[in-house]
Write a structure and sequence with these properties.
The structure holds two protein chains of two kinds.
Chain A: H1 2-13, H2 32-41, E1 44-45, E2 56-63, H3 72-75, E3 87-94, E4 102-105, E5 109-113, E6 122-127, E7 148-154, E8 167-172, E9 176-181, E10 186-190, E11 214-216, E12 223-228, E13 232-237, E14 242-246, E15 261-266, E16 276-281, E17 285-290, E18 295-300, E19 314-321, E20 328-333, E21 337-342, E22 347-352, E23 363-370, E24 386-391, E25 395-400, E26 405-409, E27 424-430, E28 435-441, E29 445-451
Antiparallel strand pairs in A: 2-3, 2-29, 4-5, 5-6, 6-7, 8-9, 9-10, 10-11, 12-13, 13-14, 14-15, 16-17, 17-18, 18-19, 20-21, 21-22, 22-23, 24-25, 25-26, 26-27, 28-29
Chain B: E1 11-18, E2 25-32, H1 38-41, E3 50-52, E4 61-62, E5 66-68, H2 71-81, E6 85-93, E7 95-97, E8 106-110, H3 117-139, H4 148-156, E9 168-178, E10 181-189, H5 193-206, E11 211-221, E12 224-225, H6 237-259
Helix pairs in contact in B: 2-6
Classes of the chains: A mainly beta, B alpha+beta.
Pfam family, one (chain B): TruB_N
GO molecular function, one term (chain B): RNA binding
Protein name (chain B): TRUB2 synthase
């Protein structure tokens, strides 16, 4: 009995541990007060400042083996087990040194230019067998030049004032290129077998590894646009005149004969006295737009490009094309098809090939309109307009005011950039992470200048 | 419903023997059919079949379509029409949470003073463009892109996927913009409200900030708009009957137009 009493006393003295619920919070949705506390205690991150500028980017896609995309790892992979990439089917970002303002795609090569006052203004990549990218000195052998340039390499221009002159525009043809500056005229380089570089044709001239860059300064006024056709060059001056030189067997020089011209000569015909505001060419056909919205064409017409005014397949004098489609703002010429953009934002195509109105329409001599709904226009967004049209050799590109890029045509070696290898018979969006500002179309590759969203 | 005046009771003619002195005569008497009497059968309506249309979240609000009785069959037909729904989605910049809504667990807070209405509209244009491309790709997945048929469909622009598909936004635009809040109108197909909250979150990420969704409100579901919807105070028999009668014609026209 005493032992039991002693046990009871001990039990009373020892504090009994009662299970507490103080360590863990009760479960359930957090109360408003708790949410506010957490909210106030959290740090604020800043990813972009208030005055952040939109970044300029360059995206390339198409055939890689020529090096025209400017990414060396496509042709010479950096790891031994990787295989070279033949085609880049979707847009790939190209790292550039400065802001690229003008780009041009030739037949297997690309030129990028920036309007800076730095020493390096133009970069070139791709095929250089005719020195269309100037002389690119080889590192291994200082006397030889590269035949293929795999990454954007600076092109040294013989400028008088290299720190004042700006490069406004570049243009590339089959094997020659033109660089337009603001105060020192036009620089030409590359193949000159037909006088397309604007200098006298030298017999048996070797064009590869040539240091020669010719300067053209003798025009009636300042040159404001240069355009390269396949083997000819067109120059548009401030006064609205057009000069041409190069191969003329299809009449693409528009000088009234079918011979080659080695000195830029002014064009006459229907554009004599007309103020031309835009010229375009890529193959052997040429188009010009006047300030009043009229369209003039000359050159090859085998694919019905000029069949609306003449039956001849080679037109060597500029002819007015009296299409009743409205005032024309911009025109672009491809190898077999042409495209124009009117002031109201309608897009018209004609010629031969995949024109963009389905697989049935393969040739027409009269312009056919591409419906606006294919460019993203709808009742919900009625203010979508096409702002620019461009042409490659067998494909077309259109830019809208929303910054979207639409392409269609023959998908030669993935040049459309839509991720598929099939031809595209109507305009299709290219997915690019940015707002597309300008695009340059080549034979089998394309380059686009893009502004980032933020 | 049970208190409403019922159909007048049916009656039938029975030949009943009449009270007469001589040989029994049969007299035609009209008697009510007792088998249909309320005291025999019980109340006419003991339960109603009510089906729900497209789902609406707990956190969302707006038009919610219900079908009563025969209307359930119409619901199935309306589902097969694949009509677009319109939502008003409100968001707030500056926060990112786990479940993309403002009541979730906070993950990150960011600055948003660099965002302007123009930048937001640029992002919305891109979203609309990529969704339009996805719509075309989906609809053309069983048609060869190289045919004239595919071209005609793309030109028409009013195509809709007539089967199961991932969520597609057919149109999106900004209604209001007052930092940090903004309001969007989204026309979509085959979506869930959580998907729309995720879209708001992704818009925040694209703008190099973060956003949470504060409100999802369905303003149109196919042919049913806010005007047809009954408020909480109107959930009574008369309003429901009136609403069903008003929508009958609209639904019939839409079904005929789409399903033929």
């Amino acid at each position: 009995k005493m032992a039991a009493a002693a046990w009871r006393a001990l039990r009373a003295a020892r504090p009994v541990a009662v299970p507490q619920r103080g360590l863990a919070d009760p479960a359930g949705p957090p109360s408003a007060r708790r949410l506010r506390e957490v909210d106030e205690a959290a740090p604020v991150f800043q990813y972009v400042g208030k005055a952040a500028k939109r970044k300029d980017r360059v995206f390339v896609w198409g055939f890689c083996y020529s090096g025209a995309l400017g990414v060396p790892s496509f042709v010479r992979p950096d790891a031994g087990w990787k295989k070279p990439r033949r085609i880049q089917a979707t847009p790939y970002r190209l790292e550039t040194d400065g802001k690229i303002t003008s780009a041009a795609c030739g037949y297997g090569f690309t030129l990028l230019s920036s309007d800076t006052t730095d020493i390096t203004k133009v970069w070139g990549m791709g095929l250089n067998k005719d020195s269309q990218l100037g002389f690119q000195r080889s590192i291994r052998d200082r006397t030889k030049g590269y035949e293929y340039v795999l990454e954007p390499s600076p092109i040294p221009l013989p400028l008088e004032k290299p720190q004042k002159t700006r490069v406004l525009q570049v243009s590339c043809g089959r094997a020659h290129s033109l660089i337009l500056t603001d105060s020192e005229g036009v620089f030409t380089m590359g193949n000159n077998s037909y006088g397309q570089c604007g200098r006298k044709v030298v017999e048996d001239e070797v064009y590869s590894e040539s240091h020669l860059i010719h300067q053209l300064n003798d025009f009636d006024s300042r040159v404001v646009q240069v355009v390269c056709g396949q083997d000819h060059s067109l120059f548009r001056t401030k006064k609205g005149a057009v000069f041409a030189c190069g191969w003329g067997a299809d009449g693409q020089t528009g000088l009234g004969h079918y011979n080659i011209t080695s000195v830029p000569t002014k064009l006459g015909g229907d554009i004599a006295g007309v103020n031309i505001i835009q010229v375009s060419s890529y193959g052997d056909c040429c188009l010009a737009v006047s300030d009043e919205g009229d369209l003039f064409g000359w050159g090859n017409s085998e694919y019905l490009q000029l069949a609306s005014v003449t039956e001849t397949t080679q037109v060597n004098v500029p002819r007015h094309l009296p299409f009743k489609i409205g005032k024309i703002k911009e025109a672009a010429c491809g190898g077999t098809g042409n495209i124009v953009l009117t002031e109201e934002g309608s897009v018209f195509v004609w010629g031969y090939g995949i024109l963009g109105k389905g697989p049935i329409l393969t040739e027409t001599a009269v312009p056919e309109m591409i419906p606006q709904s294919l460019f993203g226009w709808s009742d919900f967004s009625p203010d979508v307009r096409v702002t620019r049209v461009r042409c490659g050799l067998s494909h077309f590109a259109a830019l809208t005011n929303r910054g979207e890029l639409f392409v269609w045509g023959k998908n030669l070696r993935g040049c459309l950039g839509i991720g598929r290898m099939e031809d595209q018979y109507f305009p299709w969006r290219v997915t690019i992470p940015g707002e597309v500002v300008d695009v340059a179309c080549g034979v089998d590759h394309m380059v686009s200048m893009v502004k980032s969203f933020i | 419903l049970n208190a409403a005046p019922a159909r007048p009771p049916r009656s039938r003619i029975r030949f009943l023997p009449a009270e007469s002195a001589g040989p029994p005569e049969l007299v035609a008497v009209r008697v009510p059919v007792l088998a249909e009497h309320r005291l025999v059968r019980g109340p006419r309506f003991t339960q109603l079949k009510i089906g729900a249309g497209h789902r609406l979240d707990v956190k969302a609000s707006g038009v919610f379509v219900l079908g009563v009785g025969h209307g359930n069959k119409l619901l199935t037909h309306l589902y097969n029409c694949h009509l677009t729904k319109v939502y008003t989605v409100s968001g707030e910049f500056g926060k990112a949470t786990e479940d993309f809504s403002d009541t979730g667990k906070l993950i990150e807070k960011t600055t948003f003073d660099h965002i302007s209405r123009e930048k937001l509209e640029r992002i919305l244009a891109v979203i609309q463009g990529t969704n339009h491309k996805a719509l075309l790709m989906y609809v053309h997945s069983n048609i060869d892109m190289k045919t004239q048929e595919a071209y005609e469909l793309a030109v028409k622009g009013l195509i809709r996927p007539m089967g199961k598909s991932p969520p597609i936004i057919t149109a999106i635009r900004c209604l209001q913009f007052a930092l940090p809040q903004f309001q969007l109108e989204i026309h979509c197909l085959h979506e869930t409200q959580q998907y729309l909250r995720k879209v708001v979150h992704e818009i925040g990420l694209e703008l190099k900030s973060s956003a949470v969704c504060t409100q999802v409100r369905r303003t149109r579901d196919g042919v049913f708009t806010l005007e047809d919807a009954l408020l909480r105070t109107q959930w009574n028999l008369q309003s429901v009957q009136k609403a069903i009668l008003d929508c009958q014609l609209k639904v019939k026209n839409e079904l005929e137009k789409t399903l033929g």
